[in-house]
Structures are given as structure tokens and as C-alpha cells.
């Protein structure tokens, strides 16, 4: 979600692995994990400031993806908790020189983790030109700027492919800018109408990606160093709804997509003592 995704479109043959959610299983027992951080959204109002911050620093340059939205801070029309759910909403409106507004929430400095299990139960918005994501970035950039310190895309959805969800990792050796990023596309025709739990289990030797109880992709530590495995450092969580961009807007933007809301039921992070 960080940098130009045009290369992904040119090489999607590897990415779209059409599979039913019944094909792969293998989620670890919940009893093995201890909850260390969560937001159940059992309150009303703006997102809890002890858990979430707003990322707005990339508005000036389109977040490296030529995105069209202005991410706002503490604006209830873009991020609001009500009825037990967090709503992240993109609107078509003129605001500070932009034609769209939205929100990008991050846990950096309030939730940073090395290894563990991350779960987000969410329902994604649809419409040509919309681009919601649940993902992770390094908190310290120990190996340098993107992509060298890594990126973990737990869930991405582009509205022009309404039946698919994507999981991807990016590193110095594996990233779309050089045509080597790795991941999986999962056929999910009800992702825009139903809630699913999007998650990872992150270990020193691999990252397993799950949708509900189904393992859909594994990225393994090759042992070849940080260029291939920078995932031995702390990462934080991001959730956002982008509009347009080189990937999200590759087929244009429908006039009727807004308001477009990603609805989040909960976020839970677990750890185990032996990690």
C-alpha cells in the first residue's frame, strides 16, 4: 500500500490464486496465544487516542501511489466508533484542495509488536476506484526506507475486482517495483457484504496469512538476511480506505462509490511466551 502498485497489475498472473476458503486449513489453537493489545470498539466517538493515531503526512505527495484522498485527523465523518464498530469512511467532497477525504489510522508508538498473532474482523467497501487495506509497517526502519525494512499486507481489496482479497509482503528483494513481490489472491465474492477475520501469525521462521480459520498464504524466512527477511523488527498496524491510486484507480473511479466505509468489528493482537 506504500508505493506504486502498477507493477502488480502487469504481473497479476502469479497473484490471483482462485481458491475457495475450504481448501487450506491450519490455524493455531487460540489457547496457545495470550491477548496483549485490542480494541473492541465498545465505546462511542472518535477512535481511542490511547490506541490510534492519524497518519496525514503523505497527503502532499499522494502517498507514493497517486492516491486522490486527503487523510484527515480527528474528523468524525471519516473515522467514527458507534454501535460496537469502527467506521473508516471515504467521502467525495472538496476539502483542502482535494476531491476526496478519508482516514488512515495507525498504532505506531501505541501498539508495536515483534511476532505474534494479529486479527482484524472487518467488512470492506466496494466500488470501482476504492482501495481499503489492513497492513503493517516497520516502526523503526532498521534496514532503511521502503521496501528494505519490509511491509506486511494482511488484507487489500480493489473495487474493480469485487470478488478478490489480496495478501502480500514486500522486502528489498521481493517487491513490486522490481516485479518480485510475493503473495496470494483469494476468491471471496462476499467480502463486500460479510465480515471476515483477516489475520497473520508471525514467527521467526515464517508469516502465515489467514482469512477466518483458513490459511491462504505463507511467507518463509529464507535465512538469507534482511533483504529477504526484514521481519525481525517491530511493526505497527495501519487501516485505511484509499481512493484511486495506481492500483486502486487503474480502471478509473466510479462517480457513485462514496461514501465508502470499511467497518471494523475488532482488532486483537496476541503473543506467546516462546516467541
Give a written overview of the molecule.
By secondary structure, the protein is mainly β. The protein has one domain (6-271): Jelly Rolls, CATH 2.60.120.200. 2% of the residues lie in helices and 41% in strands. It contains 1 helix and 18 strands. It has one helix at residues 6-10, and strands at 34-39, 53-54, 69-71, 79-82, 85-95, 98-102, 104-106, 112-113, 116-123, 130-138, 151-156, 164-170, 182-187, 196-203, 206-211, 214-220, 235-243, 260-271. The strands form 2 sheets. Strands 1, 3, 4, 5, 6, 9, 14, 15, 16 and 18 form a 10-stranded mixed β-sheet that branches. A hairpin with a 2-residue loop joins strand 14 (196-203) and strand 15 (206-211). The relative contact order is 0.26. Mean pLDDT is 91; it is low at 1-27.
Shape: globular
> Please, how many helices?
1
Helix content: under 10%
Average per-residue pLDDT, rounded, comes to 91
Q: What's the total number of strands?
A: 18
**Number of separate domains:** 1
Unreliable spans: 1-27
The rounded distance between the terminal residues' Cα atoms is 28 Å
Question: What fraction strand?
Answer: 35-45%
Radius of gyration: 17 Å
Q: Name the structural class.
A: mainly beta
- What is the CATH T-level topology? Jelly Rolls
Element-level helix/strand string: HEEEEEEEEEEEEEEEEEE
**Multimer state:** single chain
Q: Give a quick account of the main beta sheet: strands, pairing sense, barrel closure.
A: 10 strands, mixed
CATH architectural name: Sandwich
The CATH class, by name, is: Mainly Beta
Compact overview of the structure:
With 275 residues, the chain is mainly β.
